[in-house]
Amino acid sequence: MNEIMFNPGSDGAEWLELYNRSDRPIDIHGWTMRMDKDGKARTLWHVPLDIPERGYFIFTDDSLTFKETYPAFTGIVLQPVDGWHRLRNSGATLRLYDLTDRLIHTIEYRPDWSPDAGRSAERVNFEPFDEVTWGPSAAIHGGTPGEKNTLFSQHIPQRLHVDIHPNPFSPDGDGQNDACLITVQLPAAHGVLHAVLFDIKGRSVRTLANQAPIGSRHTLFWYGRDDQGHRLPMGPYVLYLESLISTLQEVIVSKQVIILARSL
What we know:
By secondary structure, this protein is an all-beta fold. The protein has two domains: 3-136, Sandwich (Immunoglobulin-like); 161-260, Sandwich (Immunoglobulin-like), CATH 2.60.40. It has one helix and 17 strands.
């Protein structure tokens, strides 16, 4: 289980994404899912059907609504043959079993994994299999069915790391160093980011992120313009970053100087 939409809102579809991380197809014939300890076993699919290597499957309570919500998704969307467990917004335990009733995977999801309606909960990485490796999707459309998760990260740094390149940069339209790439790496699986640029007089000129949910690694771009799209004068600008890390129960602040220059 790689991604779950348990709180789609009043007009959305609940769904669960399975990802085959192996190098061979996996037949899901006869697989069942159970909710909580004594939940009824519901068969997901009753005939041979392979998840291809490195492939995705979506199980949902409403395939039509799912396809309307994610029109770019081109993979397989199925509705379980035995019906769908309603996914409680307050949290629940889901267990996945194969044809021989062998336990494949268990997740005990919580409401804080995705506190906003219409936003899925994503796995950050595959080891270890616990709640620390899940968090709310940072995708614009609220989820990433059939794609790499926005929170996916092989390595989570021990402290906040900000990389700015190029710096100085010269956004003059000559095709060289026209954009400043800002890469933020959090010391956690996910967080909420606020990023603002200030001029030398302390005035806010450009908001790059406004309380945006992000994964462990996130990228911002600045093209040397203010919030109204006007070109800013050459000189130093202060990038103020503030990230709320709920799992650490702290706010991390960073200040970096970016030089907006003329090309040489």
